């Protein structure tokens, strides 16, 4: 009888396949969504490339224990068709991995869809994969949801490309053209200069050309619904534009906060670090005064030249503020000696580490500002904690995110396209001394709105309820 009951229960319980782009920011946010859905008692299959999964297991004890907490949650892996030795990794060359998965991944996905029990009723696919599973979904009667892990403003900028071409506002005509104002992007008229457009508008060195991105973005039109990791109060003028094209749009972010709020705890998180976490920084932070430290991190992919490291280091030293700086292994190619030297000279006021538990760091009372590359996850994590930012964007949506941080939300300063010790020093002082109150006030206001959005009857909370309802309805 018990088995009968279980069978009946399984019948009403959807099976969701979730497939993120194999890179840190994407895996982080899609795993948060996966856990939120697992808390709703759904069957979850989370698909990683072998390369990513090996790193997840290596650097996060919590991954192995996951199936104990959520018996209906499983990880599956797919090869990415690159040799271990010559692997492009998950940084600048991620375009190569997306390409190889797009070219060779379909048979693996088909096998999975055919063999999974209970039957997969819904796929949540990272939108960067474009039409990878569109045909399979319709062949097997599976509902397809696209998830874009970038900001809504960036997603919208990609959708605006045909309009911008038509009005002759792009392509950008060289370096002298960078400060020209973009006028024909609805919802963000006169906000952007050419230099604030997503990086792929200016160059094509990552095997992710603008053409390809635009085509992939438009393939989301063929999905049954779209999820964005943002919240109404943050990007509402943009979201109303996107809704004109995507009637079934679920904005359910900030997802990490949504999950913490649902679980009412921050201690038993499923971690998804792709690097070895160094927790020594937490004890160091404990001994620093209130809001006295600037946290410096450029995410999981930004490479740095040694000249840039030196400029930023001098800027931080000259600002006379304390700092906690993440420099990933191999981030500055072949410069271990230089880093050791800086670390040695930094000791009294600064700590340089390889990878930190960033959500915890940003929530620490000693943190007063964040010098960031403006990756979307980092931006949201900073918003939630009410930490003002200095933005030094590297690529993708980071250029437009940093513009919104400085000009629209007014919760920080934009340092894009500049790397100069004097500028760093001045900006640190503006954020932490001269204009401290002003930035803290707007950052705290945005933080409150983000908390409201994921609390009962907040917009992200309500949208998530609607999403659950929709996913449940996909079960035959
Ligand atoms: N992160 C972390 N420890 C670090 C640096 C970053 O846990 O030392 C996390 C950070 O919290 C964020 C993610 O890595 O969730 C980076 O994603 P983001 O979208 O900001 O940038 P990306 O790495 O994709 O460029």
UniProtKB/TrEMBL annotation:
Recorded superkingdom: Eukaryota
Protein EC: 2.4.1.-
UniProt keywords, alphabetically: Glycosyltransferase, Transferase
InterPro entries cross-referenced by the UniProt entry: UDP_glucos_trans, UDP_glycos_trans_CS
Pfam families found in the cross-reference section: UDPGT
PROSITE patterns to which the protein is assigned, alphabetical: UDPGT
A single MF term (Gene Ontology): quercetin 7-O-glucosyltransferase activity
Family per similarity comment: Belongs to the UDP-glycosyltransferase family.
PANTHER family cross-referenced by the UniProt entry: GLUCOSYL/GLUCURONOSYL TRANSFERASES, GLYCOSYLTRANSFERASE
Protein name: Glycosyltransferase
Gene designation per UniProt: LOC101515187
């Amino acid at each position: 009888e018990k088995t009968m009951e279980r069978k009946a229960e399984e019948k009403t319980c959807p099976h969701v396949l979730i497939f993120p782009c194999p890179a840190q920011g994407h895996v982080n946010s899609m795993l948060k969504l996966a856990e939120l859905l697992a808390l709703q008692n759904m069957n979850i299959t989370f698909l990683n490339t072998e390369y990513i999964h090996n790193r997840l297991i290596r650097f996060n004890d919590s991954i192995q224990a996951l199936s104990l907490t959520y018996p209906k949650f499983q990880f599956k892996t797919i090869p990415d068709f690159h040799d271990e030795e010559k692997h492009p990794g998950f940084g600048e060359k991620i375009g190569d991995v997306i390409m190889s998965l797009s070219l060779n991944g379909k048979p693996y996905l088909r096998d999975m869809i055919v063999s999974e029990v209970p039957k997969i009723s819904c796929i949540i696919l990272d939108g960067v994969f474009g039409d990878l599973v569109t045909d399979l979904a319709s062949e097997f009667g599976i509902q397809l949801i696209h998830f874009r892990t970038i900001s809504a403003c960036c997603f919208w900028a990609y959708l605006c490309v045909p309009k911008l071409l038509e009005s002759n506002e792009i392509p950008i005509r060289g370096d002298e053209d960078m400060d020209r104002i973009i006028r024909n992007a609805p919802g963000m008229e006169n906000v952007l200069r050419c230099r604030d457009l997503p990086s792929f508008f200016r160059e094509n060195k990552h095997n992710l050309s603008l053409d390809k991105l635009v085509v992939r973005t438009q393939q989301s039109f063929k999905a049954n619904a779209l999820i964005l990791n943002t919240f109404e109060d943050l990007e509402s003028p943009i979201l109303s534009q996107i809704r004109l094209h995507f009637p079934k749009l679920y904005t359910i972010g900030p997802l990490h906060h949504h999950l913490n709020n649902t679980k009412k705890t921050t201690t038993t998180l499923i971690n998804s670090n792709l690097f070895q976490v160094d927790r020594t920084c937490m004890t160091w932070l404990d001994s620093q005064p209130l809001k006295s430290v600037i946290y410096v991190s450029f995410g999981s992919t930004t490479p740095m030249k040694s000249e840039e490291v030196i400029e930023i280091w001098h800027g931080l030293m000259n600002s006379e503020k304390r700092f906690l700086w993440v420099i990933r292994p191999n981030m500055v190619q072949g410069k271990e000696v230089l880093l050791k030297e800086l670390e040695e000279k930094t000791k009294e006021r600064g700590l340089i580490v390889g990878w930190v538990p960033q959500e915890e760091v940003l929530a620490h009372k000693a943190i007063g500002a964040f010098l960031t590359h403006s990756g979307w996850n980092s931006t949201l994590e900073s918003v939630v904690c009410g930490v003002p930012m200095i933005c030094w964007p590297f690529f993708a949506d980071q250029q437009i995110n940093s513009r919104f941080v400085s000009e629209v939300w007014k919760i920080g300063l934009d340092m894009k396209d500049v790397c100069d010790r004097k500028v760093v020093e001045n900006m640190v002082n503006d954020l932490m001394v001269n204009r401290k109150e002003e930035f803290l006030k707007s950052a705290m206001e945005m933080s409150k709105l983000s908390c409201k959005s994921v609390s009962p009857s907040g917009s992200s909370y309500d949208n998530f309820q609607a999403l659950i309802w929709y996913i449940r309805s996909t079960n035959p």
